[in-house]
Design goal:
By secondary structure, this protein is of the alpha+beta class. The protein has 19 helices and 40 strands. The termini are far apart.
Length: about 900
């Protein structure tokens, strides 16, 4: 009987066909995609997968192959390799695993070891789904063909995979990998060994080298060794990889690419080494055959045993000489030791003096503060000035200067003094010090005192604090040793040294002068040339001056004649390149805080003393470990504020938790938690970040002030402080907060950031407003809901909002509702009743009453004014 031809399906451009283990037939079409023919009765059920099928997304299917795992492998004309799990109905793109580069897939088949073979126009790729590894064979790897052809592929009975091309075909025998297939061995040989770039195989150049089969002997002079190698695999030489190891030198194998078939070793030490070499086949599988070469390097002459014997004899001889030398040196060391002990005792005594002075200075600053506050209190309670007040004030300021000088000297000695230069005009700076600090003294002592500048302006970089101390010390000495009717002169000028500008300040006097024998010692610490041994001459002023100038990259020199006077000359650089980035702070140089405070006091004295003020509702917490100063401050400020006391930071935090504190005035140095940590705790907690903090300390350096402001302090005062200044700082801080509260309350359109609150307070207000806006139309939104939304207790919420805005939470909520109503009225978003309901007022009449109380007009009048004048009766800020 004749064969029966049955048309199963009608598909255009079928390019490949295969059958899986279940008898399902799969057809590849480069026009309509993938076709699945499932046996059904006497026929087949047809299922199509094309560019609209998720995961496949193409109709250009070129080849198809069934895998024993049940997956269907699909190759597309665009160069994609896709697997299809017919049980899950899932397409997966595995092109990247098969190392596909975009060439169209021509053929696909599965070999006897379940590898998937994929051919394109220029290469064949073997992919192992189990290990997810792939090997690619390119026409550029010396294959028999230049290009492969679609449909020309098969597998022989012996398992060889065949692919046809334009010049015949290529046969690939799958190689067993380490999971069960036998590895093809690869022979690798050493092709050359070079010592100092000379081959040991060259008969004309092997003098001094002994090469035997598998063994190489090198003299001690052979410091450079190169071993070249290759493989006998000539079919795929570019796919072979190498690894080598020198036992005794390398701990692990060194893996190298095909194009680097050599190993270099330099400066091998004497001994015997084994060089091992192995390679892979073209499939990347390592051969178990290892090629070895034994290398022996002879010792140098100085490494032989008899040379080492000579070394031992020489060493013993030197040891004996060293022993005799040590005995003699021991005597000298004892003498030096006693001298060093004496020097250390002297230095220790000096440091003890400094520590004593420093500790005394710190201890005296607090009593000095008490005295200063009492003087200010006397001035306030006794109307009008009296001469005793001026005398006490002058002496308090003088004591402060002397104590600060001792503290500065201690800093210089311990290396903690830092230079902080800023740009400024030197002429008014020096003039201010002369006129303000010494002009009154010159008048009192009947001295002719003048300040001369050779230039009207000298701009430059200098440390105002250090330079103030230098000038104060020099002028103090000049005034001290110059008799009445004498003269003291300060000269300021600018010099050019090389490529830089320098300032020169000269302090000259007509005093008693300095003896020639004393000039070389006057900058030595604790040295005094005062024949009267005055207790005022403590011997550190000029030492501190010299060390501060050296810190300023400057210098000081003195010229003097006994009985005729002295001239001190100070020089320091003015240009920025002379100073490091850390030394330049970039601020405008001005006289130090001690003088600025005095100026502030002068301006305050012009104010009229207030009458006995009533106690305000501001709560002030005073944190000070000195009980007397704490009680004095509490007594003075209790006349104006509700005051609380704490002896340290821990006690202060407990009081803040229990009472509504508005401002904290705290010392920095205290036992337990200090003032800086207290400030960080307060400013870092959203419940207390609104509390103002003023820090008081005996420290007065730039770094100390920077630390205070970095901790979040609102103000900083050094001890001893003026009571008026502290009172002014407190008043300014409180008024500033009240001004912010008033602006917030009365301004309709106001950005929170415009009020310049600290970041925590600004974020809190934004969150609070957001919560109210979220419940804007809810009349029953109360304090319980408000505090719950912000995760705060009702008392904490009340204190926080009251401090920041001057309103209770209920008033604050009403204020936000009314501001929203203003915006809606200005946009004519509805009638008054509708707007009242939309912002949470249950009664329009009550809304009208609240609106008029807040803004001075009724909602209807507000709309009319806004419409005609295009302005609001309230302020608007951005």
């Amino acid at each position: 009987p004749e064969d029966e031809i049955v048309a199963v399906t009608d598909l255009p451009a079928v390019t490949d066909i295969t059958e899986d283990a279940d008898g399902t037939i799969w057809l590849a079409s480069e026009q309509v995609g993938l076709c699945r023919l499932t046996p059904a009765g006497l026929g087949y059920k047809t299922t199509m997968y094309d560019k609209y099928t998720e995961g496949l997304n193409t109709s250009n299917v070129q080849s198809v192959a069934a895998h024993p795992s049940g997956l269907i492998w699909i190759g597309t004309k665009e160069g994609r390799v896709i697997t299809y799990d017919k049980n899950k109905g899932l397409f997966v793109d595995v092109s990247h695993l098969c190392a596909m580069t975009g060439e169209g897939i021509l053929n696909m088949l599965t070999d006897n070891w379940n590898n998937v073979w994929i051919s394109t126009n220029k290469k064949v790729t073997r992919y192992n789904p189990k290990t997810e590894s792939s090997t690619t064979y390119s026409v550029f790897d010396n294959l028999a063909v230049n290009s492969f052809i679609g449909g020309a592929f098969s597998q022989s009975a012996s398992g060889e995979v065949l692919f046809g091309g334009n010049r015949g075909f290529c046969a690939f025998l799958p190689v067993k990998e380490k999971n069960g297939l036998s590895i093809r061995s690869t022979n690798v040989i050493i092709t050359d060994v070079k010592v100092h770039n000379v081959s040991v195989f060259d008969s004309g150049s092997t003098v001094g080298y002994d090469y035997v089969r598998g063994h190489l002997t090198l003299p001690y002079t052979a410091n450079n060794l190169e071993i070249e190698f290759s493989t006998l695999n000539y079919a795929f030489p570019n796919k072979v990889q190498y690894a080598y190891k020198m036992e005794g030198v390398d701990n692990d194998w060194n893996y190298v690419a095909t194009n680097r078939r050599f190993a270099n070793y330099n400066n091998l030490r004497k001994g015997t080494y084994r060089f091992q070499l192995k390679a892979t086949d073209e499939n990347g599988l390592w051969s178990e055959v290892i090629t070895s070469l034994i290398i022996e390097k002879k010792p140098a002459l100085y490494e032989t045993w008899w040379a080492q014997l000579v070394y031992l004899v020489v060493f013993l001889g030197m040891l004996f000489i060293l022993y005799r030398f040590s005995v003699n040196r021991f005597r000298l060391r004892n003498e030096l030791k006693y001298a060093r002990i004496e020097k250390e005792k002297s230095e220790e005594l000096t440091q003890t003096k400094l520590r004593y002075f420093t500790n005394i200075s710190h201890e005296l600053l607090t009593p000095l503060t008490i005295m200063s506050c009492l003087i200010d209190d006397l001035e306030l309670t006794h109307k009008g000035k009296f001469w005793q007040h001026d005398v006490m004030k002058i002496n308090v300021n003088r004591l402060k200067r002397l104590l600060q000088q001792i503290l500065d000297f201690r800093k210089v000695e311990s290396g903690n003094m830092k230079l902080k230069v800023a740009e400024g005009d030197l002429v008014p700076f020096v003039n201010h010090i002369c006129q303000y600090n010494f002009k009154p003294l010159a008048k009192e002592k009947q001295l002719h005192f003048s300040m001369v500048s050779l230039e009207p302006t000298i701009m430059g970089w200098f440390d105002a604090e250090k330079l103030d101390s230098v000038l104060f010390n020099l002028l103090s000495n000049a005034f001290k040793y110059t008799q009445a009717k004498g003269s003291v002169q300060v000269t300021v000028e600018q010099l050019q040294h090389g490529e830089g500008r320098f300032a020169r300040i000269t302090v000259s006097d007509t005093g008693r002068g300095i003896a020639t024998s004393d000039i070389s010692h006057i900058f030595t610490r604790f040295y005094s040339n005062d024949p009267t041994n005055s207790v005022e001459n403590h011997g550190i002023g000029l030492t501190l001056t010299k060390e501060m100038l050296e810190l300023h990259h400057g210098s000081i020199r003195v010229e003097s004649q006994l009985g005729q006077g002295s001239v001190f000359t100070v020089e320091f650089p003015l240009d920025a390149p002379f100073y490091t980035d850390a030394e330049r702070v970039g601020l405008s140089a001005s006289p130090p805080d001690v003088d600025l405070v005095q100026l502030e006091i002068t301006s305050l004295e012009a104010l009229t003393e207030p009458e006995e003020a009533e106690v305000s509702d501001i709560s002030l917490l005073i944190v000070e470990d000195n009980a007397q100063l704490r009680s004095l401050m509490e007594k003075i400020f209790s006349k104006r504020y509700h005051t609380y006391q704490a002896a340290n930071g821990e006690e202060a935090l407990r009081i803040v938790d229990e009472h509504p504190i508005d401002v904290v005035v705290s010392d920095i140095i205290m036992p337990g938690m200090d003032g800086l940590e207290l400030c960080r705790r307060l400013k870092g907690n959203v419940n207390t970040s609104h509390i103002g903090v003023l820090l008081l300390t005996a420290k007065n350096s730039v770094d100390d002030r920077i630390d205070s402001y970095n901790a979040g302090a609102d103000g900083y005062l050094s001890k001893p402080f003026e009571l008026k200044v502290l009172d002014a700082r407190l008043s300014s801080l409180i008024k500033n907060r009240q001004h912010k509260s008033e602006r917030f309350k009365t301004t309709v359109e106001l950005s929170i950031s415009a009020l310049e609150f600290p970041s925590l307070d600004e974020k809190f207000l934004e969150n609070a407003i957001a919560v109210i806006e979220e419940h804007l139309a809810e009349p029953d939104f109360d304090l319980d809901m408000f505090s719950g939304k912000l995760s705060m207790s009702k008392s904490s919420l009340y204190r926080k909002i009251k401090s920041l805005t001057g309103m209770s939470p209920v008033e604050f909520t009403k204020n936000i509702r009314l501001k929203h109503a203003c915006r809606m009225l200005s946009m004519q978003a509805g009638n008054v009743s509708d707007i009242a309901y939309s912002v949470g007022f249950a009664d329009p009449k009550y809304f009208t009453s609240c609106f008029k109380a807040a803004f001075g007009v009724t909602p209807t009048e507000y709309v009319k004014q806004h419409k005609h004048a295009d302005t609001s009766p309230t302020n608007t800020e951005n």
